[in-house]
Specification:
Radius of gyration: 24 Å
Distance between the termini: 28 Å
Strand content: 15-25%
Number of helices: 9
Largest sheet: 5 strands, mixed
Structural class: alpha+beta
Helix content: 10-25%
Number of strands: 14
Shape: globular
């Protein structure tokens, strides 16, 4: 089964995007994706990501003082089970100036990278489906010769001419798997080039189940790994490390990262520790509140429900807390709704690993909804 991602798409779908895009039009699109290796059809499953780099620009930004430092401004992840798979995407490129797009992926236990393949994630080979000319909220209509003549003659009112359109049965309207009416079809061809057993860290290569997630957090500066070149994906993560990851994941930029007298906030912390600024920032933003005895216990391993609360608060995901439910229920349900829980999270009290944390952050930040997510039946 083809997996798919939904995004908004910009006006001018079929134009290359290298300038500011600000329109806000939804255009659900079906793209047939073909992967080749050394010019030959590749029929094995491919997991891949498209990452586009540039900068953000709003309508009222002062161009002279605008920060044009290149950063990741758009990405999506998809799965192709075989040659010529169908991927259902949109492209929400508002307020983004894109300089280049890269593709990274894994297949057959190996990795590949296509650098600077385009200046837009939108395929060049696209066609407008023009499935209907009017939708009145319940029915779709197409043009007829009588309708065209009515408007060409210019004698009758638009209401009278509209009566000459022909209704289209809804079953004949092409839609994506989510029920969105398709407005465009595209074709994308990717040449993977050399396949290699890629290593992100000395202990993480493309065969690791969390490879894409670990690559994402590394490429986006969220996690740097250890000084010896390892990532330690199977090691448990402690409370201080988790807070740092959530802050680094975009909760606060460098200008927002705060310092404080940590001893006055949590009795068991010292101002000299590496994690102080991250815990201060998270505390001041209401992401964490520590334990009832006034401690934070930074070195303690963190279990899934504790992590879920910090993640949901940190990413401002919003929730409702019904009276009488366990305190962790809304946080767990929110992550289930985002399909952000890897299947390796076997229980609510499981102490999570660095690889699992990378996977959760990746699914949320990159809006990856195509992977199977754990549910607990709360």
């Amino acid at each position: 089964m083809s997996k798919f991602i939904k995004f908004g798409i910009f006006a001018g779908l079929f134009l290359a995007v290298s300038a500011l895009v600000c329109a806000d039009i939804m255009t659900p699109t079906e793209t047939t994706v073909y992967f080749k290796q050394a010019g030959k059809e590749w029929n094995k499953p491919v997991e891949y990501s498209v990452n586009c780099y540039g900068y953000y620009q709003m309508w009222d930004d002062d161009v002279a003082t605008l920060d044009k430092t290149e950063k990741l401004v758009y990405s999506y992840t998809a799965s192709c089970p075989s040659y010529g798979c169908k991927v259902y995407d949109g492209y929400y490129l508002n307020y983004k100036v894109i300089n280049r797009c890269d593709v990274t992926g894994t297949t057959d236990g190996k990795s590949f990278e296509i650098k600077n393949y385009a200046k837009t994630p939108v395929p060049e080979n696209c066609s407008d489906l023009n499935q209907f000319i009017k939708y009145d909220g319940t029915k779709y209509y197409k043009s007829t010769a009588a309708y065209e003549k009515c408007y060409a003659d210019g004698v009758k009112s638009s209401e009278e001419c509209d009566k000459l359109m022909e209704e289209i049965p809804e079953k004949d309207i092409l839609k994506d798997p989510s029920g969105n009416v398709l407005e465009a079809k595209c074709v994308e061809n990717f040449e993977m080039g050399t396949l290699s057993v890629g290593k992100l860290f000395t202990d993480v290569d493309s065969t690791n189940q969390y490879y894409d997630a670990i690559k994402y957090v590394k490429d986006n500066g969220i996690v740097q790994g250890y000084g010896d070149g390892t990532f330690k994906p199977d090691d448990k993560i402690n409370r201080a490390e988790l807070v740092k990851i959530i802050v680094e994941a975009g909760v606060a930029d460098d200008s927002m990262t705060e310092t404080c007298d940590i001893k006055s906030v949590f009795s068991d912390l010292k101002n000299s520790e590496w994690y102080v600024q991250y815990i201060c920032t998270a505390y001041n933003m209401g992401i964490i509140n520590g334990y009832p005895d006034g401690t934070f216990k930074p070195a303690n391993y963190i279990n899934f429900v504790e992590a879920a609360k910090i993640i949901v608060n940190g990413f401002g995901m919003g929730y409702m807390l019904p009276v009488g439910d366990p305190w962790y229920k809304p946080y767990v349900l929110k992550l289930e709704d985002k399909k952000a829980i890897p299947l390796s999270i076997s229980s609510l009290g499981k102490e999570i690993t660095r690889g699992e944390m990378a996977e959760i952050v990746y699914r949320i930040k990159a809006e990856v909804t195509s992977k199977v997510s754990k549910t607990f039946g709360l």
